Each structure stands twice: as structure tokens, then as C-alpha cells.
Amino acid sequence: MICTCIQHKTFKEIQELLPALEMAEIRLDLCSLTDDETEELFAEADTPLIATCRAATFSKGAPTEADWEEAERRLTIAVSAGARFADLEIEAPSAFSRRFQKLCRDCGTEIIRSYHNFECTPDDTGLQMALARCFRYGADIAKIVTTCLSADDRSRLEALYGLILEDVDSLQGKLIAFGMGKEGSESRIECLRRGAPFTYASLSEDEATAPGQLTTAKMREMIYGNAVKPFHRTGLRMPASKSFAQRAILAAALAEGRSVLHTYSPCEDSEAAIALASELGAVIEKDGDTLYIQGIGPHPATDAESLFVGESGLLARLTIPVAAAIGTRPGIRIEGRGTLPRRPMNDAAAIMAAFGVLLNNDSEDAARKEIHVPLSVKGRLIPGNAEINGSGGSQLISGLLTALPLCSADSSLYVNEPKSIPYMYITLDVLRHFGIKTRSEMEGDAQMLEAEDWSGCSGIRFSIKGGQKYRAAEFDIESDWSAAAGFLVAGAVFGSAELEGMDMKSIQADIAIIDILVEAGAVVSQVEDGPVCVRKAPLEGFSFDLNHAPDLFPAVAVLSAFCAGESRIAGLGRLAGKESDRATAILEMLSALGVEAAAEGDELVVQGESLAGRILNGRLLKGGEFSSRHDHRMAMALQVASLGAGSPIIIDDTACVAKSFPGFFELFNA
User: Fold this and answer.
1) Which residues pair with 246 in a beta bridge?
2) pLDDT reading at 501 higher than 60
3) Nearest to 334 by CA among 370, 371, 365, 297
4) How far apart are CA 153 and CA 166, in angstroms?
5) Domain end (from 460, 476, 492)
6) 601 in helix, strand or coil?
7) What is the three-state SS of 313-369?
8) Which residues touch 442 (CB under 8 Å, ≥6 apart)?
9) Buried b (16+ CB within 10 A) or exposed e, 378-391
10) Same domain, 51 and 138
11) What is the structure's pLDDT at 316?
């Protein structure tokens, strides 16, 4: 990325400049800013900003104690307001340095410790000592800038990128080393090639902050050229969450009275839920983006011989317990299409047996071990107490939470090793709208649970009162964070994206994409209830557990390819039973794209590189013909990847996105 140095500008002038810049260094010692203006600038800017204040500027010579105090005061205002980075030279007094480090850590600001030599480039030993001092004094990023008098000086600077330092895992994304002067000019580009997170440029030739500094316009031409097209989108609206929609449609079908569901948008899975509701006897009307559903309550029952769930694994698992609760025949058949018959219903037979229901394969391959659609549901759902294993996912548990309130007696359901926990609470939230009350209690690491880190949950106990009745409801269906993921990743890597109508307080599992982007270093913001905005920033390797949000895996895998360094993404084991064997599909996709990746146990490990580094090193993603494996999320991830490919990516099946987001390609390419 290109960081533009801003000096001798007023607050208004800086505000006008920032939207056109990738990132900016604000020279607090050279810009005419009041304290209030500094605070507002660093608190509200969407552009990643570096706060820099050189104490030597005030005396135009060796800084005095008063100069250091003034530099600290100005930096403190910027860091406290939210500066993304703060730069402090390694000559700063030790007491100031310690306070600076603590302040930055407390505020989440990355520390740049910088070494400058305006006379020459030291020998190898001198450069290595300067680099070691930067990290010893708390650097997240070390900045080494010297005056290059020869090509040999530049070579010694560039050799720093190959060092292995004690207590520093890797210099990838953690070192910016370049030279001043004519001989050092090329190193300002070369540093990006070798792994620097960003480099520095001037607004114009007249505003260079050091000899040999290139302008932002010149650097853009040299780095990006026509290699990739930027991605900038505003006013985007995502479709309705099919996770919410399917649950709400089924609940409305079971309810007494007429339910009204606003902000509905059709996709294959949600339309399958509407068709299922009709099979159960509900009457559905559509008016624009509003659904009117006349339910079959207060004592819902069906004499259907079979129920069709389309290609939706969620709908199948919701329907199995409900069919056992309201079916009037000795058995009922659950049918599906597409990839669903090939996807095993992990542990479904054992879980349903705990409530007196038998599941049998109902196909030519009926003898196979795992339960698959088509299947038969035999026996009446019996209320009671049961402990089940949740490692296979949350969907059948959500079906039980939907069906057990209809039984005559109370039930208690203890789920050990729970996965996809947020989806269980989506179910409870939807049921609450329809008058169904269920108590839940999590067990595990109290501190982790308080921080909503679901990996600390060892079990959940649900207490479900029997004899409840579904009542008609009216509410808005939330926009889908799963659908948003691809747009947000594209904005974080290639430019910017603004999404309207997203609920930042949502309990959807895939809102985790926001945490992942922040962890990777992207700029994410929202003003009150305005659009969610993500903006390009220096991205670095991250670690994240997607066991509770497995649908994010394809988009996050593409993100990791553009994050400098190693990323580790846990939850591969959750992917085998999706529309494709997603773990294999993702690894094969990354390999075909030219990205180094491997599976280590339950983790996907990706070696990433910044977009600028990929361009300069000739390592843009590889184009060619790719298979989506008829998996909507793989198709969407490949489209995001195509923005960073050196040649076109041709996807064999794009129609599969109709499963969740029929208008994806049209909106993405608008």
C-alpha cells in the first residue's frame, strides 16, 4: 500500500485529501491542527492514518526536553482518538518510550519505531543493530530509513528483509526499509516487493518529506498500473438471511393466525421453505418483499405422506423433528434434490432415537451407514430428557427446539461439544417472536463466554416447556451476513465497500466476518445506524476459529491469500457435509490459484502476500477454468478471487448462487 505523507496542511485540507488516498501519515509537527482537530481527524477518518511527530522539528536541531514533551502530548491525543499507527523514533527518551508503548497497547494502535540516518547508510552490523533496537523498544513495525550514496548502500538495506531475528517470528509485514536520495529511490518500491506492509510517497514533488521520495501518483502507476481494477461499492443491500427466513417461514406455518414477514428476498432455499409450508397446509401470499402466512395452528398436524425440502440441509434437519411431532401417519418421507442426497445427516439417527424417532434411508442405497435424504421418519416425537453430541452441527438441534414445544410434556436437552452455537440462538430468537419460550444455560469457561468466545463453551442445556402454541408474528427478516462476506472481503483487499441495512448487533454467526477483517487489519466502521463500511488497509496474517461460522470459510480463505504472512483458520472438520466437500474444494482452489496452503489437523494454514507484493513479484492469482462444485459459496469466493487474478477466472457453474443469493454476480459486477 502507499502511505502519503501530509505536511503543512490545515484540518479542512486534510479532510478533503483523505478520501482519495490509500493511507496517510499526518505530520503533527508540521500540520496546522488544534488539539480538537487532531482528535476529530483521528477519531473519524476511514483512511488508515499514521500519527507522526518529530521532536527535532520544534527546535530545528537536537530536540530539548520540552520538544519531547510536546511531541508526546500531540501523539497522545492522536493515539487516544484512534490512530491506526503511531511512529516514534528510537532516540526518544526511555520514559517517553515506555509511556508511548503502554498507550498504544491500551488503545490498539500499532507501533512504528523508526531509525533515520540522513548522512549515510551504516554497515551491515550498524543496520542490524538499528533493526534490533526497533523491536527491543516495542515495535510492531520497524522502519529503517537511511541515505543511500551508492547501489551497495541500497543492497545492504534490502538485505535486512532476509534476516532471522530472535523473538521475531517473521519480518513479513513488520519491516519497512528504504533509502533516501537518488540512489535510494527504487528501494521505496522494492520494499513492497520484499514484504513491507506499505511505503511512503508525497502529495507532489514540491511536498516531498525526504530526498528521492516519489509522488503518490507516480507510485500508483509503478505499482498497480493496469494489473488490477479497484473495487469500490456504495449503497449495497444484501438479501434477507435465509437462516432467519427459513426458520421464520416454518414457525409461521405452525402458528395460529396470519404472520407477516417483511424484507423477504427469494432464493432457492427460502423458496423451498415456502413450498414446504404450503405442503403442511399453510397459505402463503407475497406482496413485494412481504410474506403473509396463514398458519395451521393452534394444534398443527399434517397427514402428508412426504415433504420436499429442496436442496436445503437446514430445512431437512428442521423438518425431521417437526414431522415427527405433527405427522398423523405412522411414517413420513423427507425428500430433496441436487447435492442434498449426497450429504450425510451426521448423527441424525442417534439424536432422533433419543426422542423415540427412527430414521431410515429410503433409497436404492438404503443399507449405507449414514442417514441421507430421501429418508423416512417413523414414530412420534416423545418429550423427555436427553443428552446429545453437538459436534456434527446445530441444524437438527434447531429442529428439536422448534418441535419439542409442541409436545404434551416438558423436555430437557443437553448438548455437549456444541458447534455453530449462534445458529441455535437464531432459532430461539425466531421462536420468541412466535411466542415460544425456551430457557438455555451455557457451561464452560465463564470468562470466554462473557467475551462471546464460543470456543469456551463445553455444553448447553435447553429447558423446553411442552404444550406451547405458536402465535402469529410480524417482524423484519435480517439482512444476510453470509452474503455480505464476499463484498466486505473485496472491499478490504481491493478498495472499499459500504453495505446498507446490516445489523451490527445481529446474532448471526457470520457477523464474525467483521472480527476477522479487524483482526487482519482492515478498516471497519459504522456511524450510528448508517452503512457498514470496510476500507483497504495493510493486511496481515491472522488466526480465527470458524467452527461456529463454517459458511465463511471460502471467502475468508480468499482473504488470507492477500494477508502478509501466515493465517490459521480452524474448523476444517465442519466442511465435509456442505454442498461440496468444502475442505477439499478450498484447498484445491487455493492451489490452483497459486496460493501456498495446507491442512494441519483442523486448521487451514495459508501463506499470504499483500496485493502490492503479489503485483510487484508477478504472483497475482492464477486465472483459468475453475469448478464451483455446484456450491454457491465456492462460486462467490472465486468471483472475489478473480479481482486479484492475473488472467480471467472462468467458473463452470455460476447458477448455483441461486441457492442463497440469486443476484450476487449482477450486484458484484455492477
Assistant:
1) none
2) yes
3) 371
4) 24
5) 476
6) coil
7) HHHHHHHHHHHHHHECCCEEEEECCCCHHHCCCCCHHHHHHCCCCEEEECCCCCCCC
8) 449, 457, 459, 460
9) bbebbbbebebebe
10) yes
11) 96
pLDDT range class, residue 578, cuts 50, 70, 90? low
- In the predicted model, what is the mean pLDDT of residues 530-554? 94
Q: Which residues pair with 603 in a beta bridge?
A: 570, 600
Is there a single domain that holds both residue 516 and residue 627?
A: yes
pLDDT of amino acid 526: 87
Domain check: are 8 and 49 in the same one?
yes
Final residue before a domain boundary, out of 195, 223, 251: 223
Edge to edge, the sheet with strand 457-464 lists 385-389, 411-416, 457-464, 438-444
pLDDT of residue 481: 97
User: 366 pLDDT exceeds 60?
Assistant: no
Kindly list the strands in the beta sheet with 290-294, ordered across the sheet, starting from the edge strand earlier in the chain: 283-287, 290-294, 258-262, 474-476
What's 382's DSSP letter?
Answer: P
CA atoms within 13 A on the CB side of 231: 26
At residue 315, what are phi and psi to the nearest 5 degrees? Answer: -65, -40
Task: Specify the CATH number for the domain of residue 537.
Answer: 3.65.10.10
Residues 663, 523: one domain? Answer: yes
Residue 89 β-bridge partners: 114
User: How many other C-beta atoms are found inside a 10 Å radius of the C-beta of residue 627?
Assistant: 17
Angstrom distance (rounded) from CA 326 to CA 323: 5
With CA atoms as reference, report the closest residue to 569 among 600, 546, 588: 546
Q: What percent of the chain has pLDDT over 90?
A: 88
Q: How far apart are CA 660 and CA 554, in angstroms?
A: 15
* Beta bridge mates, 474: 260
343 — pLDDT class (breaks 50, 70, 90): confident
How far does CA 517 lie from the centroid of its chain?
5
236 assigned to some structural domain: no
Q: Are 422 and 549 in contact (CB under 8 A)?
A: yes
521 lies in the same domain as 635: yes
Give residue-wise pLDDT tens across range 142-199: 999 999 999 999 999 999 999 888 777 788 889 999 999 999 999 999 999 999 999 9
User: For residue 355, is it within any domain?
Assistant: yes
The domain containing residue 217 runs over which residues?
2-223
**In terms of C-beta density within 10 A (0-12 exposed, 13-18 middle, 19 or more buried), how is residue 406 classed?**
buried
Radius of gyration from C-alpha coordinates of the chain: 28
Q: Is residue 235 domain-resident?
A: no
Q: Judging by DSSP bridges, how do beta strands 290-294 and 565-570 pair with one another?
A: unpaired
178: β partners: 145
Q: Tell whether the model's pLDDT for residue 580 goes beyond 80.
A: no
The answer to whether the beta carbons of residues 159 and 124 sit under 8 Å apart is yes
Active-site amino acid positions:
116, 143
What percentage of residues in the chain have a pLDDT greater than 70? 98
* Sequence-separated (6 or more) residues with CB below 8 Å from residue 79: 42, 51, 86, 103, 104, 107, 109
pLDDT tens by residue, 194-248:
999 999 999 999 998 888 899 999 999 999 998 999 999 999 999 999 999 999 9
In this prediction, residues 306-335 reach a mean pLDDT of 95
